[in-house]
TrEMBL record:
GO MF annotation list: exo-alpha-sialidase activity; phosphatidylcholine lysophospholipase activity; serine-type peptidase activity
EC annotation from Swiss-Prot or TrEMBL: 3.2.1.18
Keywords of the record: Glycosidase, Hydrolase
Top enzyme class: hydrolase
InterPro entries: AB_hydrolase_fold, Ester_Hydrolysis_Enzymes, Peptidase_S9_cat, SGNH_hydro, SGNH_hydro_sf
Source organism superkingdom: Bacteria
Name of the protein: Sialidase
Keyword presence, Hydrolase: yes
Positions of the SGNH hydrolase-type esterase domain: 320-487
GO biological process: proteolysis
Domain Peptidase S9 prolyl oligopeptidase catalytic: 130-249
Entry-linked CDD domains: SGNH_hydrolase
Length: 561
């Protein structure tokens, strides 16, 4: 094990953070609806408005700052919301919201994570709180914050944990140095549906397990620990956790509490530096707010049919149609993995119909052979913006081809969900930087809007992120065929779109419906396009087939006039 002193991060930068922050103009509190205020119980919390309410049958609370910071940043307490609230008070006084929901006896089990997912949606959608939240967990609260964060790393600004439980075999299991808690162990096994101790001990999704997602999203963590803690021993929880976190590339800070009264066998100790905790959270919540991928998504008709199909059926089929950016490994694999994990009880088939250099025109003609002939398609991802402009297709050709693909696909399956993606290249970045929308994106978007098809504008998102200083084209994204980093940008945005699209309440009685087909944009769109054998071609006057032609004879045509 790495010596403790090597695991404790030096965080001297926190000393000057008090001089670093500028309080920006507050948003008005209008994000709380009148109905919510009327239905909640209002009280005072240290001079601030506190609203207590029920959410999915569980007690919840929301504490409002007097002057919310821009973007409505917030902290989310897990368990023991009234314990060591000094840092909470500082943050609320400086513009943070403070939220809590009582899932106390669920020990961070999947049921708790589901409630937390819904609560996050409720606060961010209904009450406009910031998408990225700062999590705070005390003791067993570590199970809640880390299990939720591992499933939702893109929604986490940072994590603060105090004497956290990170492996339930340690506590409440008591299979190591801790005495554990037999009563809580029985409850935990029940909510996790463990048949016995051996099944519980074999479980491999404690916070200390499978850490790659959080470090890869650069989620910073800060732990306060007592070295003499006999209830939640640091050797079984924080120390092995932080060791793995750092080795996985994560940002971790550990602060030991060695002064003041230690009680409950070292598990309770004073927090002598609440300002440090507040500054840590404030720095990571406000200082570097990345752009939101959601701003580049257009839902239009939505994705309700594929959600119903993948949720209610044992099988489904997803196709990816495009050029080399679709063909190559990267974002497509990430999206496929997300979908299979999201719908674990459904056997999903994935069709890679990406062919290098192919834009919308060849895709319209090969759609039947390369996609539709594979079986009923429930979800189609479509891209052609890079190759359509690179191959010199006219605006008319671009619209006819894109319309042809959509009409042909929906003619075969009127319930098919379709997503159109606009990928990036230097030319598109140059257009956006001149205040112009690239012509090919205008053309594709006009067809998408006419047919109410969702779109993801990755060209604009990448351009804006580069201009915001999040990364560079030369060193990070590198090429229109993205680097692994660039593939991650694509994958994250598309998965964010899918998560938001599929984060809908549904009943098992819900049924798929056919999408309406509007009038054509162009009577000559390529919706009847298909590939045929050359011998089936009806040759126009003056054309003939040269049967002696060979691909290696340096001639560039197989039809001669």
């Amino acid at each position: 094990m790495i010596p403790l002193k090597l695991m404790l991060k030096i965080f001297s930068y926190l000393v000057f953070l008090g001089f670093f922050f500028l309080i920006v103009e507050a948003y008005p509190q209008s994000h709380l609806s009148d109905n919510f205020i009327a239905s909640a119980e209002e009280s005072d919390w240290k001079g601030f408005e506190r609203f207590d309410f029920n959410f999915q049958g569980k007690k919840a609370r929301l504490i409002l700052p007097k002057k919310p910071l821009q973007g409505n940043p917030w902290i989310w307490r897990a368990r023991f919301p009234d314990w060591h609230t000094e840092a909470d008070s500082i943050l609320v006084s400086e513009g943070f919201h403070l939220a809590y929901i009582n899932t106390d006896n669920l020990f961070g089990a999947p049921e708790a994570v589901k409630v937390w997912n819904d609560f996050h949606t409720f606060l961010t959608v209904e009450h406009k709180l910031q998408q990225k939240v700062s999590l705070m967990g005390v003791s067993r609260g570590g199970l809640f914050i880390y299990n939720w964060a591992k499933e939702n790393p893109e929604k986490v600004a940072c994590i603060y944990a105090e004497a956290p439980v990170l492996d339930f075999k340690s506590w409440p299991g008591g299979f190591g140095e801790s005495e554990g808690s037999p009563k809580d162990w029985l409850k935990l096994k029940e909510v996790y549906n463990f048949a016995d101790d051996e099944v519980a001990k074999a479980y491999k999704n404690n916070p200390v397990d499978n850490l790659m997602e959080l470090p890869s999203h650069r989620v910073p963590i800060l732990h306060m620990i007592g070295l003499e803690d006999q209830v939640v021993p640091v050797d079984e929880n924080t120390l092995p956790f932080v060791q793995k976190y750092i080795k996985s590339g994560g940002i971790a800070t550990v602060v030991t509490s060695v002064a003041g009264e230690q009680s409950l066998k070292g598990h309770h100790f004073p927090i002598q530096t609440p300002r440090l905790v507040a500054d840590f959270i404030k720095y990571h919540s406000i200082q570097a707010l990345p752009l939101s991928s959601e701003d580049y998504h257009q839902s239009n008709g939505g994705m309700k049919n594929s959600l119903i199909k993948f949720s209610q059926n044992e099988s489904g089929r997803v196709a990816f149609l495009g050029g080399s950016i679709t063909h190559n490994a990267g974002w497509r694999d990430s999206v496929s993995n997300y979908l299979q994990n999201r719908f674990q009880n459904t056997d999903l088939e994935f069709i890679n119909a990406g062919i290098p250099s192919m834009g919308s025109t060849p895709s319209a003609f090969r759609l039947e052979k390369d996609v539709l002939a594979k079986g009923k398609i429930d979800l189609l991802f479509l891209e052609a913006a890079v190759n359509d402009s690179g191959n010199g297709r006219t605006s008319t050709e671009q619209k006819r081809a894109m319309e042809g693909i959509i009409r042909h696909a929906r003619e075969v399956n009127p319930e098919m969900d379709i997503v159109i993606m606009h990928f990036v290249d230097p030319g598109k970045m140059a257009s956006y930087n001149q205040g112009l929308v690239p012509e090919v994106i205008k053309n594709h978007q006009s067809v998408a809007d006419h047919y109410n098809i969702p779109t993801i504008n990755l060209a604009k998102e990448v351009t804006d992120r580069i201009n915001a200083g999040e990364f560079t084209w030369e060193d990070d994204f590198k090429n229109l065929h993205p680097s692994p980093f660039g593939q991650g940008i694509y994958g994250n945005s598309i998965i964010t779109f899918l998560k938001n699209s599929y984060n809908k309440r549904q009943n098992m009685s819900d049924k798929t419906t056919s999408y309406s087909t509007p009038e054509r944009i162009d009577p000559y769109s390529y919706d009847k396009g298909k590939l045929i054998d050359i011998n089936e071609a009806q040759l126009a006057k003056g054309w003939h087939i040269d049967s002696n032609w060979k691909p290696n004879d340096n001639k560039k045509q197989d039809l001669t006039l």
